[in-house]
Amino acid sequence: MSAPAARHRRGLLLMLGATLCWSTAGVLMRTQSLTDGWEATFWRSVFMLAFMTVVLSVQYRGAVWRRVAGIGWPGVVSGVLWAVMFVAFITALARTAVANVLVLSSVSPFLAALAGWALLGERVRPGTWIAMLAAFCGIAVMFAASFGEAGAWGNLIALAIPVAFAANVIVLRRMHARADMMPTLIVAGVVSCAVTLPFALPFDIAWGDVPNFVALGVVQLGMGCLLMIAAARHLAAAEVGLMAELETVFGVAAAWLLVGEVPSTATLIGGSIVVLALAANEALRLWRGDGRAPALEEAAQP
Predict the structure, then answer these.
(1) Higher pLDDT residue, 178 or 284?
(2) Half-sphere exposure of 143 toward its Cβ, with a 13 Å CA cutoff?
(3) Distances, alpha carbon 134 to alpha carbons 105, 130, 139, 267, 274, in Å
(4) Are the CB atoms for 167 and 77 separated by under 8 Å?
(5) Which of 64-73, 170-179, 199-208, 214-223 is predicted least confidently?
(6) Among 36, 115, 239, 278, whose CB has the most other CB atoms within 10 angstroms?
(7) How far apart are CA 23 and CA 19, in angstroms?
């Protein structure tokens, strides 16, 4: 096997690992006694922050805070918006089905493309417009079925994820900046902990829940992001985006098979439309050879 082929295969395996890490969120949230979304977000962020601090300390030989300070204001803004995604993801999982949260958060690349067209005048290809229309139709099916139900609030909270992601992309492009993901995650963890702490007190976490939150912070979020960053060195952006759709499939299947959370018919129909639209759009980008778009267009799971 040639060196480029070996690097490509390594990238695919790393991205597969990232999607498997991300897909554990629903099962881990459903197999613990703590149900408060604020406190759950706090503990997940605490363990992610501790993990990323250790990783950066090793990688940068103790110069963690110098690297964090080096991201500048664009990185700080990016970190705050990632914190919004962290909070919205877990609080939405506490209020609606796993499948709904995963499907709604997966439309982040489309919302970023739409915001780029409206606010920055960026060109959107006809195929992407068609895929976006199909995806939004799928979301409409999900919302129509949940109207008036308790899960509708969770769906609305989940929509904050792609909105914050799109805002992140727009801010960074407007500032002509690129965020270094690893130090930015430190900022996101600090902001997320600070915002959720007042609402999390007094703590109700049980000792039996601690392993779940360690796994959420270290494996699901920390390792997932690290594997994606490593994979992006070997893959085109379109390949990263295409494989990221596996996270929705794996996450829904895991919640269904391991904790018995069966998606509603509307979620299966609407979610399938969204995932197929996203996958078709990324596959078309790859086939056209324009998959080297900015990596921020590809959504990392919050």
Answers:
(1) 284
(2) 13
(3) 16, 6, 9, 15, 7
(4) no
(5) 170-179
(6) 278
(7) 6
